[in-house]
Amino acid sequence: MLALAAHALAEGHNKPEPKDLWQEPYDLASAWRPCSDHRDWRPSGGNNGYILVTANGGMNQQRVAVCNAVAVARLLNATLVIPRFLYSTVWRDSSQFSDIYQEDYFINYLTPDIRIVKELPEELQSLDLEAIGSVVTDADIPKESKPSFYLKHILPILIPNRVVHFLGFGNRLAFDPIPFQLQRLRCRCNFHALHFIPKIQETAALLLQRMRRHVHPGPLDRHLVGPYAETILKDKGSRPMKNSRYLSLHLRFEIDMVAHSLCDFGGGEEERRELEAYREIHFPALVQLKETTRLPSPAALRAEGLCPLTPEEAVLMLAALGFRRKTHIFVAGANIYGGSSRLSALNSLYPNLVTKESLLSATELEPFRNFSSQLAALDFIVCAASDAFAMTDSGSQLSSLVSGYRIYFGGGKMPTIRPNKRRLAAIFVKNSTIEWRIFEQRVRKAVRQTKHVQTRPVARSVYRYPRCRQCMCNADPFANFKH
């Protein structure tokens, strides 16, 4: 099938691309406008005590935790201490909040909503929080708990002890039901309060300049790189080149994702042994579950669309959709499982395929080495600013947050390709017998069905689906009831 794709790309260099390849359904998408920065309440005094949060996961999981913590602090009329980030054996990054986000901007922007401080008052720093019962772990809070849980179970700890420490805090606040203004605050935090630090913005602006090869900033640049959007204009005398738009592709194919999926990826017994060894170290609960429960087979998981797309499948999808061979593609994601050889299929079909590591010199990359969260921030910016964004796993946090950011600030001009992995799995199963023309038709149909404009489904993330009246405004009074 890769050979057929290569032939189709070589033959189709003069063939026009499908009209909707780089477009959203503009009329419907552009009707939505950001409005979560509108406030309709008085500041919270934070009088009930202090909330400490130590968030786990990578940069994107931590971002969600921060926004949820802001909402909980407002709910409990508590003062939020700038969140801390747990060191993970998977991500191996010691970065803290101020290494990724502008701390003072975050505090000042949210001052009309909640009180935020950089550390606990001196008289509370010596408290043994575990001894007094003020440490609350994820095990103590049901996933997606309602606000009533925090009022009933956390507030009685907070008021007498003056401090509550949420250890490992993540996806522990429900999206529905939740008060309107509290939901709006979460959107305000995610889309307006979290600005990357200048070091990240400056390098990201350099990446954008090199990806576009022209002098015009994109519509999201000022939100993503702030004042460094102007540096993209520095080569004012240069002549814009044709075909300077670019596609970004998030390949969620790191070993943690591959191992946790329990899928097979064609590597035989050696692959199975390697992934099982990784699970034993990083996912012991999953190993135990495998021993005690009959889990679906790898083939069944794939048929249900539960396996991440491989780099080979991703490139077949792009070719079938009609992206030309000369398309400039930015690949986000670190340490692709299988190494550079796994990317060779993409490079052979799309020679203008790059990563942040290939776009930056060793000197430019050096300040970010060993800081996976800061590198993830660069990926976030380049993906969010791209002319089109393709994901391979719609459940990944980076893909979810990037697609939500593009919806929120994109004005109906920032298309995102979300593959229906169940539909694609059925197509890929037949890839040894199917004709390229039929394969192309089926892939386009499967992907086009995901490009519709919809409001946020009940209980789904406002960070991923911001088209709801708490986050965005629509002049159509029936917009919130259309799907």
Primary descriptors:
single chain; 483 residues; alpha/beta; six-stranded parallel β-sheet; 13 strands; 10% strand; disordered C terminus
Q: What's the arrangement of secondary structure elements?
A:
Layout: H1 2-11, H2 26-29, E1 32-34, E2 50-55, H3 59-75, E3 79-81, E4 84-85, H4 97-100, H5 103-109, E5 116-117, H6 122-125, E6 135-137, H7 147-161, E7 163-169, H8 180-193, H9 198-212, H10 221-225, E8 246-250, H11 255-261, H12 268-282, H13 284-292, H14 298-303, H15 311-321, E9 328-332, H16 344-349, E10 353-354, H17 356-359, H18 362-365, H19 372-384, E11 388-391, H20 397-409, E12 416-417, H21 421-429, H22 436-448, E13 472-474
Parallel strand pairs: 2-3, 2-4, 2-7, 3-5, 6-7, 8-9, 8-11, 9-10, 11-12
Antiparallel strand pairs: 1-13
Helix pairs in contact: 1-15, 3-8, 9-19, 11-12, 15-22, 19-20
Protein name: O-fucosyltransferase family protein
GO molecular function: glycosyltransferase activity
Family: Belongs to the glycosyltransferase GT106 family.
